[in-house]
Specification:
Helix content: 40-55%
Shape: globular
Strand order of the largest sheet: 3-6-7-8-9
Largest sheet: 5 strands, mixed
Radius of gyration: 18 Å
Structural class: alpha+beta
Number of helices: 6
Strand content: 15-25%
Order of helices and strands: EEHHHHEEEEEHEEH
């Protein structure tokens, strides 16, 4: 039986370092970056009588389910959709089909998928979507169901350093797939090969993260 209530986004993974201390995720670190596009977006939804927080959580759940469907494609596991609504499942399946269309004809050799990692050097954690070989080239692949924005350059740069810091060979590029959830969205593929500025920006935000948490007024 499918739930009548939209499933909300899953809880964020808690990352801990080798000493057992909690470290921030890539998402939380980048969360300190100003995102001016969110204000007009929320205003547009408000004018339509839509609660932006509920809308965001619903779409995040669709994204999580779409990720699970893609992961199952590599692991052969079965995804439990019982807690999702029919609408959420339909949107996630649309995203999954778009991913399959992209993967068609490509030789994908998985090293890992959705593997939580922690950088002991830089003290942060993250879970890259996929890392392996695409047609013989070592790559990272990241799936987006909510559009591709400039913050993704920081995100994949941080993932690349996570991969390196955990003893893997750093990928030469990250492929970011913007996979639509409905017919009014478009498929987009972005390849990132220059991580210099993305890492500079992320590492600066990471340096700010701890002192900002300590400031109380």
């Amino acid at each position: 039986m499918k739930s009548d209530t939209p499933k909300t986004a899953r809880a964020h993974i808690r990352y801990t370092n080798g000493m057992g201390a909690i470290v921030p995720s890539v998402t939380r670190v980048i969360g300190n970056l100003n995102k001016p596009q969110l204000v007009p977006w929320a205003n547009r939804l408000g004018l339509q009588g839509i609660d932006s927080s509920k809308y965001r959580d619903d779409k995040a759940s669709v994204g999580h389910l779409a990720h699970a469907l893609v992961l199952a494609d590599f692991t052969g596991s079965v995804v439990d959709t019982s807690e999702y609504t029919a609408a959420q499942i339909a949107q996630a399946e649309t995203s999954y089909l778009q991913y399959l269309e992209w993967a068609k004809g490509k030789h994908l050799e998985t090293i890992f998928a959705e593997l939580p990692l922690v950088s002991e050097t830089w003290q942060y954690g993250g879970t890259p979507d996929w890392y392996g070989y695409v047609d013989g080239e070592l790559c990272g692949v990241d799936y987006k169901t909510g559009g591709i924005f400039r913050e993704v350059v920081l995100q994949v740069s941080a993932y690349r350093e996570l991969i390196r810091d955990n003893g893997y060979v750093a990928p030469s590029k990250f492929i970011v797939l913007g996979i639509p959830r409905s017919s009014d969205e478009i498929f987009r593929e972005v390849t990132i090969t220059d991580f210099t500025q993305g890492w500079a920006a992320f590492s600066a935000l990471r340096a700010l993260y701890d002192p900002l948490k300590q400031i109380k007024i």
